[in-house]
Write a structure and sequence with these properties.
By secondary structure, the chain is mainly alpha-helical. It has helices at 15-31, 33-42, 52-56, 58-61, 69-75, 78-90, 107-116, 119-135, 145-173, 181-191, 196-213, 219-234, 238-255, 261-277, 280-297, 303-318, 322-339, 345-360, 364-381, 387-402, 406-423, 429-445, 448-458, and strands spanning 50-51, 95-96, 102-104. Among the domains are: 298-378, Serine Threonine Protein Phosphatase 5, Tetratricopeptide repeat (Alpha Horseshoe), CATH 1.25.40.10; 405-459, Serine Threonine Protein Phosphatase 5, Tetratricopeptide repeat (Alpha Horseshoe), CATH 1.25.40.
């Protein structure tokens, strides 16, 4: 095995295991070319779960790039795929997951799979892996979006790491690139809610490709520009965000017109940006333009209409126009409950906003009910440690502090702080807001030394 020079023997204490894997792989090669290649492809994906629909996406990919015959044969035929992965399983190179039609692989065995790939095969298999993962990226409007997203996460992390570390450079060196702009775009879309820095890199690559292939004013180019604006806004890079939005808006107005829904989406995004920048008059104008356009295009109860209604509620709350804010929130909430249901994340975000409003109005019992409803729903939809869940946790802490329930407030703040530190880091503004809240709480409790530490850290 050492003489082959391809297997990192020093990584494995039990050479007999490695020899067994190699012999098993050689037997698989003799019996099924498809199974042997599938094992190599798997090395570019995640070891946790492989299922037919993921691999079957190669059929769609073949319409854009050349896909090897061995892959098409199993992508177009579930039985052929089952035979291939079943052969791997029979040689203990894959494990059938009980109660599902998927397979997994031990992480150490998975790393070994990467050693099977020859240098000339690396780029092709990496591009294919990225392509099929990107095609499987779910839209937020799809049923069971969160479940599908979670299932795909490991694969998306794996292929994006390969793209960033190797694929970008190799594509630039290749005369004919195998990675479609849509692959970068879909991965950017996937990571926008997971890893914004990674999403920016994907969207930037997509933008370069679209500009080269379609031009500066093509709608695909402009969609990517708009999404980059969203990411820059989330990252606090507000000047860059405004430039992206303005570019997208001008292009969409020219391509589609003033009242097209895609144009209105960017108008709404500009409203959000101006609100974050404190340019509230401009924000209101953008929201009102978007709202009127959505109502005309989609109707009063469409989710895009309701999203802008909710944004206006936030704006009016910030301006102290609390009665108008409540009307907007109530309209948005009733619409979301009807359109999405009681437990949809958009519904829950509006519930949380109503909680904030009721707290500002001194209607604390109503505020607590809203926060508790939002928290239970977010924990179920996103989990205990999601930043949106933690925002509601922090809001509950502030409410309990206002109600004089200080021990309970401390527990809630501590939970929010630990979550923010893990999600955002020690110096993120959300983390520091909670640190400051703890300082105020400790001051009210007379624990002045602890209060000073919190204030100093926040400062």
């Amino acid at each position: 095995m050492q003489s082959q020079g391809r297997f990192a023997l020093e990584e494995y204490g039990d050479r007999n295991v490695l020899t067994t894997w190699t012999m098993s792989y050689e037997q698989v090669q003799k019996q099924s070319n498809e199974a042997a290649w599938l094992l190599k492809l798997w090395g570019f994906l995640d070891h946790g779960e492989l299922w037919y629909k993921l691999v079957a996406a190669a059929s769609k990919l073949s319409k854009k790039v050349d896909v090897p015959t061995w892959l098409l044969s199993i992508a177009k035929d579930n039985l052929a795929y089952t035979d291939a992965v079943g052969l791997l399983s029979s040689y203990s190179l894959a494990d059938a997951r009980e109660g599902s039609n998927s397979h997994s692989m031990h992480s150490v065995l998975h790393r070994w799979c990467g050693q099977l790939v020859e240098d000339k095969e690396q780029h092709v298999l990496g591009c294919i892996a990225a392509g099929i993962v990107a095609i499987n990226v779910p839209s937020e409007s799809e049923p069971e979006f969160s479940k599908k997203r979670k299932r795909l996460l490991g694969h998306a992390i794996g292929v994006s790491a390969w793209l960033i570390n190797t694929g970008f450079a190799e594509e630039e060196e290749t005369d004919v690139g195998m990675i479609q702009e849509s692959t970068y775009y879909n991965l950017g879309y996937f990571f926008a809610g997971e890893d914004r820095q990674k999403a920016v890199k994907m969207y930037q690559r997509a933008l370069q490709g679209y500009e080269k292939a379609w031009g500066l004013e093509h709608t695909s180019t402009l969609d990517t520009v708009n999404n980059l604006g969203l990411l820059y806004a989330d990252l606090g890079r507000l000047d860059e965000a405004e430039k992206m939005y303005q570019r997208a808006l001008q292009g969409k107005e020219k391509a589609w017109g003033l009242e097209h829904t895609s144009t209105l989406d960017t108008v709404n995004n500009l409203g959000n940006l101006y609100a974050d920048l404190g340019r509230l008059d401009e924000a209101e104008k953008m929201y009102q333009r978007a709202l009127q356009g959505y109502e005309k295009a989609w109707g009063l109860e469409h989710t895009s209409t309701l999203s802008t209604v909710n944004n206006l509620g936030i704006l009016y709350a910030g301006l102290g126009r609390l009665d108008e804010a409540e009307k907007m929130y109530q309209r948005a909430l009733q619409g979301y409950e009807k359109a999405w249901g009681l437990e949809h994340t958009s519904t829950l975000i509006t519930v949380n906003n109503l909680g904030l409003l009721y707290a500002d109005l001194g209607r604390l019992d109503e505020a607590e009910k809203m926060y508790q409803r939002a928290l239970q729903g977010k924990e179920k939809a996103w989990g205990l440690e999601h930043t949106s869940t933690l925002n509601t946790v922090n809001n509950l802490g502030s409410l309990y502090a206002d109600l004089g329930r200080l021990d309970k407030a401390e527990k809630i703040y501590q939970r929010a702080l630990q979550g923010y530190e893990k999600a955002w880091g020690l110096e993120h503004t959300s983390t520091l807001d909670t640190v400051n809240n703890l300082g105020s709480l400790y001051a009210d409790l007379g624990r002045l030394d602890e209060a000073e530490k919190m204030y100093q850290r926040a400062l």
